[in-house]
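This section describes the prediction task in plain terms. A model, or a person checking by hand, is given the sequence of a single protein chain and must write out its three-dimensional structure as a string of tokens. No templates, partner chains or ligands are provided. The sample shown here is typical of the held-out split.
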Amino acid sequence: MSENQSPGADLVHVGFGNFVAMNKVLAIVTPNSAPIQRMIREGKKRGAIIDVTSGRRTKAAVFTESSNILLVAITPEALAGRVSAARAGKVTQAQDG
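The expected answer:
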């Protein structure tokens, strides 16, 4: 196992067959405000953008511990719901064991 992976990483589907390790996420935000748009532009300049929208409109920006910014085509609310569902499933699995 590499140093970038942790044994209990919660992978959450962010659309189009792409997943993100939620233990590496700092923030999930909407890309509508000027400061976030500025951060995305600066990220593009330094090569820190990971676009997983498959050509769709960006509805959320996910900031990671490694200073990367993921652009995703699902809303922050939907992504938060997927994280909650994944954590609830993990708790249920742990209680069953």
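For orientation: The CA atoms of residues 40 and 69 lie 7 Å apart.
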